[in-house]
Amino acid sequence: MPIPVTCPDCGARFTASDAAAGRSVTCPKCGVALPAPAVPVLDRVEVVAPEVVTAEVVAPARVPARRPPPPPVEELDDADDGDDDPPRRDERDESDRPRRPKWKVKPTGPPVGVMAGGLALLFAAGVTVAVVCWYKLRDS
User: Fold this and answer.
1) What's the rounded mean pLDDT across residues 134-138?
2) Domain count of the chain?
3) Spatial CA neighbour of 87 closest among 71, 97, 76, 78
């Protein structure tokens, strides 16, 4: 019967012959010399009868029964019964839902800053024309 050997250097596993038991063998992968383990010699063999084990029969675990279906939802009354839970989504009325605008309302017309700047330019142009005209009339 071959002897299993594992090289401690490279971890290679190989088998050595029975004649190499207790002697030095070389690893075929890395070439390191290592001792082959000795095979114990058995003078006699004892036959032991297998032990009989009896097992208890256990009933299979019970599968829990299905839950009964929930009772039907009762109609909500207007009386204050202390139950202040909001109605479920399917119980809400369409009129209860807040409405969001479909688009943002944008202001129409030019912004106030553009209008003020235009008026300032008009005023400055009018003043400039008035000054130029005044100087021309004075010199003539």
Assistant:
1) 87
2) 1
3) 76
